[in-house]
Predict the 3D structure of the following.
Amino acid sequence: MWELPYRDFTAMIGNSHSILQVSHVNPDADTLGSSLALRQALTRFGKQVTTVCMDPPVENYRFLPGIQFIEKTFSPRLYDLIITIDCADLTKMTGFYKEYEAFFTTTPLINIDHHPSNNLFGTLPMVVPHAASVGEIMVHILDEIKAPIDQDMATCLLAALYFDTGSFQHSNTTSDVMRIAARLKKYGANHQNITYYLFQKKSFPLLALWGMALQKLKVDQTRGIAWVFVSEEDLDRTGTGSKELEGLIALVHGIPGVKMTIILSERGNAMVKGSIRTSNGTDAAYYAGLFGGGGHHKAAGFSAPLEKQPFLPITEPAAERLSIT
């Protein structure tokens, strides 16, 4: 059992009346599933709960029970407690901090996360860097506050586990994760929907984008680096967004000998978004940190101004900067 401040968590929940849950930008199944499960539990305890995210969930997450309750805006004066979920850095990941800095710095805040780069912000950090996902942490929290997990909550939490373990393929798939997954399945979690919507469903525009991206694929076998740069024009031509590139990185990273895979996508605000996956001990978070980003040891991301593109690993000379020994 993890040594987390469950009593303090329970006390802060008990003293609150209206709670704001905040997910990170470009939400994934972990932040969404964990948020929705906790939202349902707190609502049953009689709390008023609003769950917000700066970016709307993509279509493939629409199967999550309660997804219709995710909102994009909120009024700070209505809330006496904030809970951030899966946010390593409050100032960067929520998207709301700049506009509501005073609210975030003066309101009691519970920080639930599993990123090693989390800077332990908030009144009550509940951060477990070795947890496979926030969904795993959330199951422990729900157990401690004696919140029953129903079928809908189980589906949300199992989706969180599935996503952050790569459908139980990543090395963070521990025996504890598998035991929790078995519990959630016993509670009625719909794993068929989870596997289909998270890993199998592919639209024609998405496949068209992947095809264009793979034509641009570059591989440096000597350094074990593979990278793709997707332009804004590529996204426009296929009617897609950078979110559709999520599954591509796993496909490219399967190339034998590749230890680091980087997917770069141009954004309309003169920025480039980078996603990094690594293996064989290479620290993805370290390399993402070179460009102001962060994340986990094997999966990380960053955003950088487009004019810094020559410093990114999209040309042979630039690969020297991220060379791996």
